[in-house]
Amino acid sequence: MGAMAEGLRERKKRQTRQHLSDVATGLFLERGFDAVTIAEIARAADVSVNTVYNYFPTKEDLFLDRSRGIVDRLSRYVRGRDRGESAADAVLRELRIQVEGVSPTVGLMEGYERFMRVIEGADGLKARLWHVQQEVLQHLESTLQEESGAEPGDPTPVLVAGQLHWVHSTLTAYIGREMAAGRGAAEVSRDALVLLDDIEDLLGEKVLNYARRAAE
Amino acid sequence: MGAMAEGLRERKKRQTRQHLSDVATGLFLERGFDAVTIAEIARAADVSVNTVYNYFPTKEDLFLDRSRGIVDRLSRYVRGRDRGESAADAVLRELRIQVEGVSPTVGLMEGYERFMRVIEGADGLKARLWHVQQEVLQHLESTLQEESGAEPGDPTPVLVAGQLHWVHSTLTAYIGREMAAGRGAAEVSRDALVLLDDIEDLLGEKVLNYARRAAE
DNA sequence: TCAATATTTGGTGTCATTGCAATTTTTAAG
DNA sequence: CTTAAAAATTGCAATGACACCAAATATTGA
Predict the structure, then answer these.
(1) Which residues of chain B have pLDDT under 70?
(2) CA B72 to CA B132: how far, in whole Å?
(3) What are the φ/ψ torsions at residue B19 (nearest 5 degrees)?
(4) Cβ(B175)–Cβ(B108) below 8 Å
(5) Which of B163, B199, B207 sits opposite A159 (nearest CB)?
(6) How far apart are CA A34 and CA A11, in angstroms?
(7) Which CATH architecture has domain A69-209?
(8) Are A163 and B166 spatial neighbours (Cβ–Cβ below 8 Å)?
(9) Exposure check for chain A: N or C terminus, fewer CB within 10 A?
(10) pLDDT for position A69
(11) What pLDDT is recorded for position A9?
């Protein structure tokens, strides 16, 4: 058997993982993060507690499983910038696309407030999200160091990374807050676009022009 | 009896609290945060576990007790800005003073690397520090909203607060990293001043001039 | 010295998380 | 189809943070 065909075992593992995440998320949305125990999740999913831990190292992972693959989003925006675009240009352009498209990747999606409420009520989840943010930042720092070809020791790429990361986190924080307040995604999307203009207006020239890719 | 005289009870409480924090910090520095249990701390301090919890709500508080009173530091810088100074001017000036003075308030102090190592090895502590950062940011947001007299709904004060907070966190992150690498405080202080120049150079005009206090 | 008040403590319980050994399932090979 | 190795699941026990409560002690002002 080759690497192509996916064995029964692999399929069942993915299913079990998904099932666990779904069941757990459902319970969290219903009753809040802290009020649900791992034992309950296991019972509801019809597996043992140990099996839960086989798939998810911590309780937080059960809820944040969906939010993976975000770590390198900003880096990809920067690497994928067009000719003539700076790193900041690319990030702002891509973020505007996400916001205009009312994309869940920036927290725009009906019913997102329910997720927000769960997060707001659990410090453990907040801590975990901040951890993810740190990873995003570090990833972006390395990316900008490479993309800018700066000499080691030059703090500029790290500083610009910090600024671009701030743009992103400020945007998502705003969206999260507004969605948590119960506003509609379309409405928040409109306001977020204005906010992005304000943010761009606040950035320094150096930041806006950093790592500009040669035109043509 | 008046509020002046401090009774025996008050004195003993402060002593016990300090003693607990000292004993705990000593153990943490020796063996790391996770490797020390509350029970051990209680035993070493010759009190019961419950008494520890009487003074410190969580294990993290035992280590981070010293770092209190930081929440409104940035806000105080802004409120205390001189005539002719903008909010950013004041923050940059005060930070330069702290850095030049090799002040422990920005993490400059011989032996600080040991604290850093404890923090690096414990996610719970990192999470706690991020939480403090959030409080600093929120505090600064309110302050700038007041100090700028912006209409409610204007996002500018919040955005500028984010930028000033970024300046501060970038500086302390840099210092923390360098100190953790085992470099001397005086040396790191010098480099940090250069970094502050780079940071200032990166900020936008709008940020640098926000909430400027009328001269004279 | 007494009674009100605050502090300490021991006991008990919940829950996340880990380690381990026994058991069951899946897979690949014969 | 049988089978032995590999992987997954499970039960069981233990650790440690933290909460709750009632009994025991210490401190205070009167």
Answers:
(1) 1-6, 8
(2) 10
(3) -60, -45
(4) yes
(5) B199
(6) 31
(7) Orthogonal Bundle (1.10)
(8) yes
(9) C
(10) 85
(11) 75
pTM, rounded to two decimals: 0.93
**A50 CA – C23 C1', rounded, Å:** 14
- Listed in order, the ranges of chain B carrying CATH 1.10.10.60 are 8-65
pLDDT score for A4: 40
Give strand C nucleotides closer than 7 A to any protein Cβ.
6-11, 14-20, 26-29
Domain A8-65, classified CATH 1.10.10.60, yes or no: yes
Eight-state DSSP code of residue B213? P
- Give the residue range(s) of CATH 1.10.357 domains in chain A: 69-209
Which residue of chain A is at minimal alpha-carbon distance from B205?
A204
A151 in contact with chain B, both atoms CB, cutoff 8 A = no
Q: Cβ contact (<8 Å) for A198 and B163? A: no
A46 touches chain B (CB under 8 A): no
Residue A184: burial class (beta carbons within 10 Å; 0-12, 13-18, 19+): middle
Which tokens hold the place of A103? 């994309």
3-state secondary structure of B166: helix
Nearest to B170 among A162, A198, A205 (CB): A162
Q: Is B203's Cβ below 8 Å from some Cβ in A?
A: yes
Q: What mean pLDDT is predicted for residues A192-201?
A: 98
